[in-house]
Amino acid sequence: MMTLRNDELPALIVGGDSLVGGEIRRQLNEAKRPFAFTSRKGTDGAIPLDLAVPDMHALETVDTDTVFFCAAVTNMAACEADPAGTWRINVDHTLDLIRYWSERHAHVVFFSSSQVFDGDTPAPDETAEICPKNEYGRQKTAVENEIAEAGLPAAIVRPTKILADHPVGMFAQWWQLLNGNEKAYAASNLSFAPIPVRDVADLSIRLAARRRDGLWHIASRNSIAYDAAARLMARMAGLPVSLVESEVLTEEKVPAIFRHRFTDLATDKVVQELNFPIKSAEEILQSLFAHLRTSGRTAP
Ligand SMILES: NC(=O)c1ccc[n+]([C@@H]2O[C@H](COP(=O)([O-])OP(=O)(O)OC[C@H]3O[C@@H](n4cnc5c(N)ncnc54)[C@H](OP(=O)(O)O)[C@@H]3O)[C@@H](O)[C@H]2O)c1
Predict the structure, then answer these.
(1) Binding-site residues, ligand 1, Cβ < 6 A
(2) 161: which residues sit within 8 A by CB, 6+ positions away?
(3) Ordered structural domains, the chain, with CATH
(4) What is the tens place of the pLDDT at every residue in 26-54?
């Protein structure tokens, strides 16, 4: 763990209750680094902040030189359903806050997404042209563009699919079905390039410590189809692989604007410039699914 720039000043995590923000808090805690964080939930010790109606006075209580900007409307369907309302949160007020800290000479790590691409090109690198095909991707693009055009002191991290440190959501559902001897359906025509939340937080803290600006991709070395991931889970948990059924996702299930043919990103920059280790999708999933072996037949 690296130290941040000024050991006396707390880092600020905007959206400390998010998946990524929670892991940054955990890693800073472990390194005994001071930090403050915002939340909408009334979490103990949190500074209340709603990006829909941000109260700048609350933020004036924190003197910081390092900001991790994790809060956003992250549900892509919600962005599509309310483009104006989510634009205010994900673009207008996000940029207001990034400018606010920039004027106070703080360095910001902003979380963008691989959704700034259309997914038609395999493994684009940080110099590739961006061309989002959904509202969430357009909102991330707008923030990225403004940071670049205004020369704001910020690192922009573009993660692919971030995984919690134990199987949740779809992974937990597959496990429950297979464990109950029922069929688990998983897409054969959609892939993902998973990245553990631990790695995303680690990279962000490294970027903050070194005051790095610019674009940074983080993803697994390759992508894997969802049905292949489900079979890997079944094998690792000692459950019947034959119960995993491949299905072809239809437009009704997942509209094409949310589907990328290629879900991987080129990650040479983090490897070469930060010596950051990049793992294969299979290695990452094996670590995730190892929880299932150790938890036996209880739900993950
Ligand atoms: N997870 C991924 O796979 C992934 C992939 C690529 C990029 N990213 C980006 O990485 C960042 C972190 O993602 P995550 O998955 O950790 O997020 P997350 O777990 O979905 O949490 C989103 C956070 O944003 C907060 N938020 C939403 N609306 C808000 C508002 N109006 N005012 C204040 N806070 C608000 C939520 O607060 P509440 O807790 O109060 O609801 C929550 O803490 C996001 O910018 C996301 O777009 C994520």
Answers:
(1) 15, 17-20, 39-41, 49-52, 70-74, 89, 111, 113, 159, 161-162
(2) 192, 193, 194, 195, 263
(3) 11-164+194-222+264-279 (3.40.50.720)
(4) 999 999 999 999 999 989 999 999 999 99
